[in-house]
Amino acid sequence: MTETSELCRLDRRKRAVVEAARALFIEQGFERTTLGDIVDRAGGSLATLYKVFGNKDGLLEAVVFEKAVSGADIIDSSVAGGGSPAQILHRIAEDLHAYFLDPEVVSLVRIVIGRSISDRDFVRRFFERTATRTQSALTTVLSVWQAEGVAMHGEPEALAEIFLDLIVSDLHAEAISHGLGLRHSSDRLRARTEFFLTGAKITDR
Amino acid sequence: MTETSELCRLDRRKRAVVEAARALFIEQGFERTTLGDIVDRAGGSLATLYKVFGNKDGLLEAVVFEKAVSGADIIDSSVAGGGSPAQILHRIAEDLHAYFLDPEVVSLVRIVIGRSISDRDFVRRFFERTATRTQSALTTVLSVWQAEGVAMHGEPEALAEIFLDLIVSDLHAEAISHGLGLRHSSDRLRARTEFFLTGAKITDR
DNA sequence: GCAAGGGTGTAATCACTATTACACCTTCGC
DNA sequence: GCGAAGGTGTAATAGTGATTACACCCTTGC
User: Fold this and answer.
1) Does the beta carbon of B31 lie under 8 angstroms from any beta carbon of chain A?
2) With CB atoms counted within 10 Å of each terminal CB, which end of chain A scores lower, N or C?
3) Does domain B68-199 have CATH number 3.30.70.1070?
4) What distance in Å separates the CA atoms of residue A83 and residue A156, rounded to the nearest whole number?
C-alpha cells in the first residue's frame, strides 16, 4: 500500500476541516456552529467529515487537542535562558501570560468550560494536558532551586500554585468575563512577579 | 407590603418556576434543560412561563440574577467584626471562599461563561454585580487602612486584585475544571492569606 | 351562585440540525 | 485509458425543542 498519496489527500481535507471548525467554534461557539457551516467553509463534504471524525463531538476533540499545549515547554525554555531566579520568573511570567492570553486559547478554554457541564471527562483530559502539566513543571523548577540553596518560604508545590494563580488568573478572568476591561500591562505583570518574590521571600542572590 | 394576596398567586408560581429552573440548569446545563422539564418539575404551565418570563433567555436571566450576590456584603460584615488588618483579612478570605465555592454559585458561573460566547452583555452585567463590586469593596477597605496609617506596599486597587485572585482563584479553577481534585483546606487558605500579608508587606501592628 | 379573567393542559406549529443514504465524480496506480 | 477506492453533493430521515394557539377550569370579587 502506497499510503502516502492517500494520507496526503485525506490529511489535507482533515486539516482544512479542523481549521474551519476551530475558526467557527471560536467565532460563534460550539453549539451554534452547524456542521453545514463547517463544510461550507472548509469545502469537502459532510460524508467525509463523518468518516474522519465520527461525529460533531469527535471534531471538537480534534480541534481542542490540537491547541492544547501545556505551559511546561514555555517554562523549560525560560529556565534554559539562564539568570537569577527572579529574572527567570519574570521571563516565565511574560511568556506564559502571552501564551495564555492568546485569543484563540482563551476562546477554546471558554468552549471547554461550556462543555464541562455535560462532559466532565473531556474537560479533565484538557486540563491534565495543560494546567496540571504546567504546574508540575514549575514545581520542579522551584524544587531544584530549593535544593540548590535558594531560600524560599513555603512548599514548592504551593508556591507554584500561587505563582500561576497570580499570572494566569487573567486567563480565567478573560475566559470568564469575556474581556471585561482588563488591563494586562507589562508593568502589572512585573509588579505581580515582584509581589510573588516578596511573598515567597525569594531573595535574588 | 399589603399586596400579598394579589402578588401571592403569581409570585408563588414565579418562584416555583425559578427554583425548578435553577435546579435543572445546575444539574444539566442551560441548553440541555428543556422548558418541558422545568414545567414538569415546577408544576404550572408553559403558557404561564411564557407570560411571566417572555422566553427561555428571560428565565435564565431571572435565575442568574437572583443568585448574583456580590461579595461586598461579605467583606463589609467581616470588617465590622473588628480586629487587626491581618485578622480581618483572614476572616474575609474564609467567608468569601465559602461563598464562592458554594456549588450552586460555581455552577451558575459555569453557565454564565458558557453563554458568554453568544451574549457578551449578559456576562458583563453578571460580573459587574459580582466580581467588580467585590473588588471595589476590598479596595475601599485597603484604602481606609492605608489612610489610617497601616503600612502596605502597593496601590490598594492592585493589592485588592491580587488578594482576590489568590482567594477566589479556586472558584475559577472549580468553574473551569469542574472540581478536578482541588484541595481547598482551611490551612491552604490561611497560608495564602499569610502569603498576601508578606507580599504586601502589611505588618500586624 | 355567577360571570370574568387569569391560569392550565394539550396539542399543533415551525425551524433547525445531527446523522444517514445514495448516486455520481475524481483521483491514481497500473 | 481504466477500474476501483475513496471523495463529493444532495436529498432524505428523524428527533428535538422553542414557541404559539386554543379550549377548558378554577378562583375571586360581587
Assistant:
1) yes
2) N
3) no
4) 19
Which chain A residue has its CA at the smallest distance from B187's CA? A158
**Tens digit of pLDDT for each residue in B80-121?**
999 999 999 999 999 999 888 888 888 888 888 888 887 888
DSSP string, B27-88: HH-TTT--HHHHHHHH-S-HHHHHHHHSSHHHHHHHHHHHH---THHHHHHHHHT---HHHH
CATH of A3-66, one of 1.20.1070.10, 3.30.1330.10, 1.10.10.60, 2.60.120.10: 1.10.10.60
CA B167, B104, A100 angle in degrees (round to 5)?
Answer: 50
Which residue of A lies nearest to B174 if distances are taken between CA atoms?
A: A113
Closest CA to B143 of B131, B152, B134: B152
Instruction: State if pTM tops 0.70.
Output: yes
Is nucleic acid strand D under 7 Å from A51's C-beta? Answer: yes
